[in-house]
Design a protein that fits this description.
With 328 residues, this protein is α+β, with helices and mostly antiparallel strands. It has three domains: 131 residues, DNA-directed RNA polymerase, subunit 2, domain 6 (Dna-directed Rna Polymerase Ii 140kd Polypeptide, Chain: B, Domain 6, Beta Barrel); 67 residues, RNA polymerase alpha subunit dimerisation domain (DCoH-like, Alpha-Beta Complex); 96 residues, no CATH class. The protein is 29% helix and 11% strand. Helix 2 packs parallel to helix 3.
Length: 328
């Protein structure tokens, strides 16, 4: 039997996963040119910038000691071996060791920025794009960073339609099964923060476990028909039609209060048809400038929608407009 190993060189890119030796893992979010990276007071650009919130969330302060002691060891050309639970020998033993070694490295190399008494362990660094110093001092150091096997080239996956779970009727999970992307609570909160209501509706209904809507989308795709529209679509049309203007069949704008439109005629019928499927209860309460009272809508088994609008103003009959249409 002949076993062949293939070596492939992959440069690190956005989306790849890296980790230190203290559980401080993360995803590369951006790669900048070397001249744009922050640089130290001696002009040395840094290699990686980590989010400081990772320390407080995971509470792994070992990475801070490793980074600071690694800087001191690199300048002093020394290696350190720290036993676990060294606090049993002396209170804050690790912190005292790190600060003493940084002070010694600053004194021997004559670099005062290595150990600054005002903020020991931190240093002022400069923005590589502007050359201005950052507002707050930053912890700098050297530590081991490992590239993990989780790489973006092997993680990328897409799906239009595919298998669904028999129990939940949601898309199955996993790239090997042509599964869907999991959208959890925090992902939904993030989308809500951006106000993308239609994307949320699509994710949580059409592309999930809404059987009827899923079938309607499939039929519309195959037969080239019009897909189901959300209530927000009709709400938008309602707001347009309620701004005292309606659109006649010939494309003319006709005022609802002009007195020339019949109760149900070519001037009002197209506008009322576009409102089919909308349930509005308090639009006139929230918007006193609207010239129409709330619409009353009834839906029967044939999905026929009856739209009744009670109007103010000066239409001929001073009141009732009614038409019946069918929604998709």
């Amino acid at each position: 039997m002949v076993r062949v190993y293939i070596l492939q060189k992959r440069e690190i890119k956005v989306g790849d996963k890296v980790a230190g030796r203290h559980g401080n893992k993360g995803i590369i979010s951006k790669i900048l040119p070397r001249q744009d990276m922050p640089y130290l007071q001696d002009g040395t650009p840094v290699d990686m910038v980590f989010n400081p919130l990772g320390v407080s969330s995971r509470m792994n302060v070992g990475q801070i000691f490793e980074s600071s002691l690694g800087l001191a060891g690199d300048l002093l050309k020394k290696h350190y071996r720290i036993a676990p639970f060294d606090e049993r020998y002396e209170q804050e033993a690790s912190r005292k060791l790190v600060f003493s070694e940084l002070y010694e490295a600053s004194k021997q190399t004559k670099n005062p920025w290595v150990f600054e008494p005002e903020y020991p362990g931190k240093s002022r660094i400069f923005d590589g794009r502007t050359g201005d110093p950052f507002e707050q001092p930053v912890l700098i150091g050297k530590s081991y960073i490992l590239k993990l096997i989780h790489q973006v080239d092997e993680k990328i996956h897409g799906r239009s339609t595919g298998p669904y779970s028999l129990v939940t009727q949601q898309p199955v999970r996993g790239r090997a099964k042509q599964g869907g992307q999991r959208i959890g609570e925090m992902e939904v909160w993030a989308l809500e923060g951006f106000g993308v209501a239609h994307i949320l509706q699509e994710i949580l209904t059409y592309k999930s476990d809404h059987l009827i809507a899923r079938q309607e989308i499939l039929n519309a795709t195959i037969w080239g028909k019009r897909g189901p529209l959300s209530l927000d679509h009709y709400a938008c049309l309602f707001r347009l039609d309620s701004r005292i203007f309606c659109f006649s069949g010939g494309g003319e704008q006709c005022s609802l209060r002009c007195g020339r439109c019949p109760p149900v005629g070519p001037g009002l019928l197209p506008a009322r048809r576009r409102l089919a499927g909308l349930v509005v209860g308090d639009l006139t309460v929230k918007n006193p400038t609207f010239r129409t009272r709330p619409f009353v809508i009834s839906i029967d088994r044939e999905r026929s929608v009856k739209v009744i609008a009670l109007c103010y103003g000066r239409p001929p009959t001073d009141g009732l407009y009614a038409t019946t249409t069918t929604v998709m």
